[in-house]
Q: What sequence folds into this?
């Protein structure tokens, strides 16, 4: 006798497909250029280009510090959530009894409930690794920012190149942070599985709709993408960045 019913397998398959498919669309497909995340990546690159032209960069360091604090908060929350998953495992029988009194059908097998709890813990563990790596990348980008020399006649090109490195580190940090948050969002849809596979499929669809709307059709996306162009980086000062791809050019010796 298998732990999963056909409905469980179909709902879980739909969940995995929705999550992976969304990742592909917003990060790898041509549609990614229309997302809020892509617009923010352009602003990150523009920010680092502007930073390299400031003689006083206290404001820039303060912004990165705020990003790091937010990332650390979510990383800590992930660890707390994992601990909550262990609490679920230790209280399986009691939770099932409460669910039956409420008229819910959580599944006849205790093993099924434990597998669901383990799956939820895996999602939070994935989020923790993403937030942890994003925190490190923000730290690295701060170091590269500190290594960016002030703009001068003889250091302008080198300053642009180093600032471009910092920009790409910022972009990578933002992507990993977004993946961690995405795991949190899909964990909300995953909770529906503890009630019923059909509810699981519905909550997954609802989560997907919310995320798609925010990336492609939200007011925030419209504001950030409105008039977005290469004007974020002055045309005469783009020596360190490939203006078509946004990728940093190699440092020259």
A:
């Amino acid at each position: 006798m298998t732990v999963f019913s056909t409905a469980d397998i179909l709902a879980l398959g739909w969940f995995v497909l929705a999550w992976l498919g969304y990742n592909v669309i917003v990060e790898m497909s041509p549609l990614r250029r229309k997302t809020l995340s892509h617009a923010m990546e352009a602003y990150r690159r523009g920010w680092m280009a502007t930073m390299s032209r400031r003689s006083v960069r206290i404001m820039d360091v303060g912004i990165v510090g705020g990003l790091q604090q937010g990332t650390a908060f979510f990383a800590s929350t992930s660890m707390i959530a994992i601990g909550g998953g262990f609490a679920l495992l230790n209280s399986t029988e009691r939770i099932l009894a409460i669910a039956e009194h409420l008229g819910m059908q959580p599944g006849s097998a205790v093993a099924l409930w434990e597998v669901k709890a383990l799956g939820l813990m895996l999602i939070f563990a994935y989020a923790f690794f993403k937030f942890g790596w994003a925190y490190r990348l923000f730290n690295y980008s701060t170091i590269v920012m500190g290594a960016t020399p002030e703009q001068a006649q003889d250091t302008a090109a080198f300053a642009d190149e180093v600032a471009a490195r910092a920009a790409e580190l910022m972009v990578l940090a933002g992507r990993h942070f977004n993946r961690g948050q995405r795991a949190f969002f899909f964990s909300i849809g995953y909770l529906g599985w503890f009630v019923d596979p059909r509810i699981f499929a519905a909550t997954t669809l609802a989560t997907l709709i919310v995320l798609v709307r925010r990336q492609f059709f939200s007011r925030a996306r419209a504001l950030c993408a409105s008039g977005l162009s290469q004007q974020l980086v002055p045309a005469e000062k783009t020596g360190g960045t490939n203006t078509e791809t946004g990728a940093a050019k190699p440092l020259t010796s």
